[in-house]
Amino acid sequence: MEGSGAQDAPLVSCPVCLCELPATHINAHLDGCLQEQENAALRALGGRQQQQRGGGGAEGGQGPRWPPRPGPPASPESQAAALRGETLAQKLEGKPLADKLRPDALGDYVGQDQVLGEQTLLRSLLEAHEIPSLILWGPPGCGKTTLAHIIASNSKKNGTRFVTLSATSAKTNDVRDVIKQAENEKRLFKRKTILFIDEIHRFNKSQQDTFLPHVECGTVTLIGATTENPSFQVNSALLSRCRVIVLEKLSVEAMEVILKRAIKSLGIRMLGQDKQHTGSANGSNSKSSEPPVYIEEKAVSTLAFLCDGDARTALNGLQLAVQARLTAGQTSHQASTQGCSVDGVFITEDHVKEGLQRSHILYDRAGEEHYNCISALHKSMRGSDENASLYWLARMLEGGEDPLYVARRLVRFASEDIGMADPLALTQAVAAYQGCHFIGMPECEVILAQCVVYFARAPKSIEVYSAYSNVKACLRNHQGPLPPVPLHLRNAPTRLMKDLGYGKGYKYNPMYKEPVEQEYLPKELKGMDFFKGNKM
Ligand SMILES: Nc1ncnc2c1ncn2[C@@H]1O[C@H](COP(=O)(O)OP(=O)(O)OP(=O)(O)O)[C@@H](O)[C@H]1O
């Protein structure tokens, strides 16, 4: 009566393929199902890539990766070891260097000591495998996804599943599937699930609502990553159930550590200011038949400085600079041209700048370039040059400028340069600001472009701006105490104030049919015209 036993058994759904089947059949089914999934994953990814990505890791695909597979080489050192044996050009092929060198262990995570240093709560929780729901908030390339990776490989050690979704591509149904599988895993195998959602701010509030009850009841532990302020972008009910971890831009020193590690893993040799090898950063060259590749120490510090705390930009810049030099410099001996005592391919500060320019338009968000570009945009709009205006806008946005910074400047421009010539400009600018706030980059770029073209084409007037500047100058240049507010303009809410003459003689304009003769300025300023000579 085996058949009827199976029919009577309660139905359960397979945590892998989600099909419903009698509980008595689940084990046999799972064996086949897992084997099939394993084979499919191997076919799709190729053995080597899978090894790099690390079994049930946090990369890529939307479906859960289970069961945990043997992990990847754990540290950047061992990843470097895995890269050894290839030529430098081969090492730079395929996945971006930044991805290849993404650390998997907490000990290899650089910087962010304020949240991950010794004695911090998060570190203790990670070490104890107690992962609370987290929102990782920080600028691009500061290590949010990397931290999630580390949590993933850490949590694999105690059998916790780690599932990744990207809010840019995942649909609500994908979230539901993940939740369903997490419920099954919890029910059948008492296995916990951590759900990592990259760019969580891109989920709308109702999509975020989908996982709220499941975070609340512990079916999943949520780790969200966002570059946007979560107070505005994350559902407040969800936010209150998560610990917000604020990651900062990586410091120049941290960036140098990351870059030097990459240089070492590529087998590139580093030269100090005096063009001598700096021993510590040297890597072994991959193949002795290859010409040695050198990089100036100055080039590394410049790269670390220019990438504005974004490790991905820095590593991409390095990768492109090296690739470009390998292509251009295969036969060249740089020693004579650089005035130093080495033969081989030589990477200088200019080469890395060029590499950075290609990978990420060179734009120092914190430095002079930021002010230069915003000034060029302002002046181009003032000069009614719509082409130049768009060009400077794109230079900033493509360089990674915060769109809200540009939008704030447009609000200012609307009053300073267009003013009363087209008062609607201010409405346009505020609408553009809000639009950018709602949808973020890259979608908001066209909102800013529209506003910039509107402003370039708009009539201009600095009448109000100049008049207000004159008022400020008048106040600043006033000698002695400022004149009192005329009594007739003062409000008189109490008897005493009335008795003191407050409001006395004030002419309430609506009571008069004819124009009212009345002074509104202090008597010392009688007849002052702040607009005189300023009409535009
Ligand atoms: N703290 C860090 N320590 C070591 N390497 C890091 C660190 N942060 C970033 N990296 C390197 O930079 C790359 C990009 O970082 P990551 O993907 O974690 O950035 P992110 O903050 O998630 O950025 P985004 O918001 O753009 O997705 C990683 O693959 C890794 O190689």
Features:
about 525 residues, Zinc Finger, Delta Prime, domain 3, 5-stranded parallel beta sheet, single chain, disordered N terminus, 3-stranded parallel beta sheet, about 10% strand, Rossmann fold, Helicase, Ruva Protein, domain 3, alpha/beta, 10 strands
List the helices and strands and how they pair.
Blueprint: H1 2-8, E1 11-13, E2 20-22, H2 26-45, H3 47-53, H4 76-83, H5 88-91, H6 97-100, H7 113-116, H8 121-127, E3 134-137, H9 144-156, E4 161-166, H10 172-189, E5 193-198, H11 205-216, E6 220-226, H12 230-233, H13 236-240, E7 243-246, H14 252-266, E8 269-271, E9 293-296, H15 297-306, H16 311-328, H17 335-338, E10 345-347, H18 349-359, H19 368-382, H20 386-398, H21 403-418, H22 424-439, H23 445-457, H24 463-477, H25 495-499
Parallel strand pairs: 3-6, 3-7, 4-5, 5-6, 8-9, 9-10
Antiparallel strand pairs: 1-2
Helix pairs in contact: 2-3, 4-14, 10-11, 14-15, 14-16, 15-16, 15-18, 16-18, 19-20, 20-23, 21-22, 21-23, 22-23
Bound molecules: adenosine-5'-triphosphate.
Residues 98-99, 101-103, 109-112, 138, 140-146, 225, 227, 258, 311-312, 315 line the site of adenosine-5'-triphosphate.
